Amino acid sequence: EVQLVESGGGLVQPGGSLRLSCAASGFTVSSNYMSWVRQAPGKGLEWVSVIYSGGSTYYADSVKGRFTISRHNSKNTLYLQMNSLRAEDTAVYYCARGSVATHNWFDPWGQGTLVTVSS
Amino acid sequence: EIVLTQSPATLSLSPGERATLSCRASQSVSSYLAWYQQKPGQAPRLLIYDASNRATGIPARFSGSGSGTDFTLTISSLEPEDFAVYYCQQRSNWPPHYSFGQGTKLEIK
Fold this sequence. Notes:
By secondary structure, chain A is mainly β. Chain A has strands at residues 3-7, 10-12, 18-25, 34-39, 45-51, 57-59, 67-72, 77-82, 91-98, 106-109, 113-117. In chain A, 0% of the residues lie in helices and 51% in strands.
């Protein structure tokens, strides 16, 4: 079964750091485009970052320079290192796999992990 | 950056009725548009990809249409479990970016 399980969310002070993890099963993370998507409380979906199978990484302007996406191939796990966190980064963070052939849509998604940035 | 605009923001219908949700792109996305359903406390679920293809396990009452800049998600006869928020989404090749519409909340009338 193809599955994604996020972890690492929690409460962090403004300016702090947090690392999210997304453990995959049923497929190989390094062979796919993998993204992070977030959802602020009561708001819509916002794409955050993607790592291509070749290793290239891209970010939304709102997190560029503060967040870093990476993966650990032997652990089959995706990460999101979040630094210089702001109140507006408060959200549920989902990891998602890009569609296998075209990379144009997301399936499956993890269940999400909540990040709260507050003093 | 391509902007997706969904309408209406909220749609109030009764079970058994037909639902029509719209997504308009600020420039052509060809047929590269997806639709997701999200229920409270759950992750989004892929419904439709490439504008008109149902994802695995999605009931036939869900259908998608459109190309270019105008897209429609239709639910032919609403079931109680269909009341949720629906998002459209597209991918830009360069610069690499994914965009979501702001969502349409389908609520029970």
